[in-house]
Amino acid sequence: MTHEVVLIPGDGIGPEVSDAVCQVLERAGAPISWATHQAGLAALDEGGDVLPDTTLDAIRRTGVALKGPCTTPVGEGFTSVNVKLRKTLDLYAAVRPVRNLAGVASRYDDVDLVVVRENTEGLYSGVENEITAGVVTSLKVATDAACTRIARWAFRYAKSRGRKKVTVFHKANIMKLTDGLFLRSAARVHAEEDADVEFESVIIDAGCMKMVQNPAQFDVLLMENLYGDVVSDLCAGLVGGLGVVPGANFGDERAVFEAVHGSAPDIAGENRANPLALLMSAVMMLNHLGETRGDEACRASAERIRTAYDGALGAGDRTRDIGGELGTSEFAQALIRRL
Ligand code: NAI
User: Which domains does the chain show, CATH number per domain?
Assistant: First the structure.
């Protein structure tokens, strides 16, 4: 059995890290055939839209994609390809597992948490207006339907993974309606779904303080779009940075796997990017294929890759962002030798 998966190389460091990941997956015997499509600046360069219909249609058809980061201009220009992709395909649950890796030095050694982020609304609704000269607004949207389904997803995820607690980070003391709805929905779903998973709510500013003091107190974190975006990067910083944190965006029918990091223009094209975050996202993808399509070969190749990168990191084979000397391609070659 071979699974067709859409590959979006992306912008900046995207092509370098995706190339490294494809080589590793091939060596690990992952039963994947890639259908490469563009999005972001790369799609514009080819004369198309930033998010071409052909790319969206391909993901609708295959149901699974591995995506490199796409650049979004700051303060001007086109709206985020990433946000548009998640909304268009209704990939409402972003999940980012954050844990220590052996051989990667960080301030903590006991981090093992998962950020679950609502991916389709909140302040990322993109409804911004200039009311009059010098006055602009941005609309934060929360719907009962979206708040309820992300809460349900988080509690079911926690239960299926044997996780003990779901903590909602919110600001319902100030945004009583929007964050209030998010919080109330989570509390209701907790009451309906399961008493085995503990439910906790923490105001996000205090939550960030608690996080940097003792991240081990958190298990699954549930939050709306913007908070999830910010807290994901904060959590990445607890375990060694953006080079080591994977992610996935799930809808009911499709899933797009991508690292938490962006296109890193400061190091693009220099063979310095750590491909591990995208590789770990690919491992999540292989496990997802194994789980949803019952293909043991996917799970086996995921396990081989995990063993290879654990071994490599433990032996000191690392990229510079995590204290090593290797370039992107040298790190990929170190993994390939182990495979
Ligand atoms: P970024 O994540 O690209 O970079 C932040 C810092 O982390 C930089 O110093 C970068 O060199 C470093 N870094 C990131 N990934 C790394 C890796 N794999 N290996 C080694 N170092 C790494 O965030 P930034 O600079 O805020 O955003 C750059 C662009 O990426 C923007 O256009 C932004 O909109 C876009 N972006 C796209 C995302 C996506 O496609 N899902 C997610 C986040 C940002």
Answer: 1-103+243-339 (3.40.718.10), 107-238 (3.40.718.10)
